[in-house]
Amino acid sequence: MTNFSTRGGQNIFRLHLTNSLQTGYVVLLGWAGSNSVVFGEYILNAAQVPVNRWNQRGIGLACITSAFLIHGLALKWGLRLQNILGVIKLIILLIIVFAGFAALGGHLRIEKPNNFDNAFEGTTGSAYGVVTALYNVIWSFIGYSNANYSMSEMKNPVRTLKIAAPTAIMIVGVLYLLANVAYFAAVPKEDIVSSGRILAAQFFRNVFGLRAERALSVFVALSAYGNVLSVIFSQGRLVQELGREGILPFSRLWASNKPFNAPFMGLFEHWAVSVIIMLAPPPGDAYNFVLNVISYPLSVVNVFVSIALIWIYTHKEEFQWNPPVKATLPVAIFFFLSNVYLVIAPFVPPPTPEQNQYTSLPYYLHCVVGLAIIAAGGIYWLFWAVLLPKIGGYRLEKEVHKDAEGWTRNVFIKVPNHQAPIEGSSF
Fold this sequence. Notes:
Strand 1 (394-402) and strand 2 (408-416) form a beta hairpin. By secondary structure, the protein is mainly α. 65% of the residues lie in helices and 4% in strands.
């Protein structure tokens, strides 16, 4: 959370409203829960054990709990493991890509599916179908932003992001595209539609056979585990930064790096919410619901981010806006329009009930839950910053404290309305 210089209490008032809205999104969403579910599915597939509600989620719980403890108790080892698993993911993608080329040449354990003949037969161009597909694609690349949340721990963050971020996006984008070509070359359409999250396992079975499928499923599970490590690492630091902003109750607790030089309580908060979100939905809908309830609010947040960027670009004389990495005005406008579509289109019902991505949930449920999560941050701000001070006859004034560990945090002081402002406070 960046503290921009502001002019007057009203600007700071708005700033903390914005931070509170972001708080609902950060604190109440369990990003790490989705791939914990995937980890459980692939482990069970490797063991040839049928998936049910509790064995899948039990393994997922063990997955996310171990990731939380590793990053909370042994930060350096967590980063090393995260990097190793990132390499494993790239290796798995390369295996899929090259095996796909072999499949295109007819090297399969099944009859060649010929999916490229009338490739789009049976598909629809409905708004619901398009936006559902887009959310799945966006989810595949959403980890791009995780590096931004740990910039304070980088040696040369600007240079690192300028080089590493676009390079990573291009490499992963090409590999994902070729991986999808490989799936299309080796797995019949009907199996692709019905496979859910274990499409990679079916691909390995069709190309390499059953024994190879089981072995490679373990590596796919490890790839999912790497994602869980990455996500909980970054989200724990977002909670920590909210604590340092002074927005959360018991902010000092969330802001601290004690006792293991890691944001243990921030990691714990994300672990707890992820576990709840992972365990709550019905069995068949767990993954899709978790994915969508995370992606949808992000689109809402991005609408407001893009509006702010457009405002800054069109009122340059009012802002000192010269960050080392920035978008252009056309990019900001495109970003705004695309996210408006992503916010509105999910409310358009699917053409038929059978096309609902959920088995037993309303098609719009993730939208309602996502908006409620953001609204919860606004309600929290309304009580914390407006109603309680009015009822209690006080105002909030911000002080910046530097703790023994060397980091700074905001502390909001309750000052009676009749008392003069505290020297150096923000209000």
